[in-house]
Amino acid sequence: MIEIYPLASGSTGNCYRVTDGSNPLLLECGIRFREIQRGIGYRVSDIAGCFVSHSHGDHSKAAADMMKAGVDVYMSQGTADALGLTGHRLKIVRALEQFKIGAWTVLPFDTVHDAQNPLGFLLVHKAGARVLFLTDTAYCKYRFNKLTHILIEANYSLDILNANVAAGAVPVAHKVRVMRSHMSLETAKEFLAANDLSRVQEIWLLHLSDQNSDAERFRRVVMAATGKPVFVAG
After folding, report:
1. 23 pLDDT band (50/70/90 cuts)?
2. Domain with 27 in it
3. Tens of pLDDT along 141-199?
4. How many domains does one find in the chain?
């Protein structure tokens, strides 16, 4: 059984633990290392691998510390270059080239964000689970079959963002940046509608904006659109 534990989600930091009970993985390490230690019960040596989607600090802050602690950290070459990371615990991966970690087969894929070589990840377990991790991207051009768990960004809703711009709470330049590099609730709904959800057990909404989202509304909207259990990572 796959279990998902959000340690942090949002612009201040992102980190998610995904486990089958014996092969725990971390998706992102964008909080302080000691917070990660506390969040996983100080069992850092149990972590089979940590995936970093891109170089922004709220996703990569503890990457060097994770490597020092003996955890293999997987990222694109562009992310490693931007972070200035090297070493035997650094594992460079490429979009659409799959690799294995224990019981997991992992397929990285390219995303659309204002960073060097950002990635999303499809995690396929030998027992049949298929976990999609998709964050910090304006959209996703790929489609996926037989997903069982989805972690997807729903950063903002256009109506809330527009209202904040009109009220002067959000600068126009920030709106442009958000729309070019983050996934809206509306785009997330379109993505989910275009994919095979027949086996999906749960959907997690990630990286909600403090200003431009409404967690309970987003959860209700996605649940109504998909008919699946929906959770908001916080």
Report:
1. confident
2. 3-232
3. 999 999 999 999 999 999 999 999 999 999 999 999 999 999 999 999 999 999 999 99
4. 1
pLDDT at residue number 41? 96
Q: How wide is the angle at C-alpha 22 spanned by C-alphas 20 and 28, nearest 5°?
A: 65
State if pTM tops 0.90: yes
Quote the pLDDT of residue 113.
Answer: 97
The contacts of residue 105 (CB under 8 Å, 6+ apart) are 98, 99, 123, 124, 126
CATH of the domain at 45: 3.60.15.10
Q: ∠ CA(21), CA(152), CA(102), 5° rounding?
A: 30
**Residue 91: beta bridge partners?**
74
Burial classification of residue 234, based on how many CB atoms lie within 10 Å of its CB (0-12 exposed, 13-18 middle, 19 or more buried): exposed
C-alpha to C-alpha distance for 130 and 144, rounded to whole angstroms: 9
Q: Quote the CA–CA distance of 17 and 179 in Å, as a whole number.
A: 28
- Matching residue, tokens 């070589």: 117
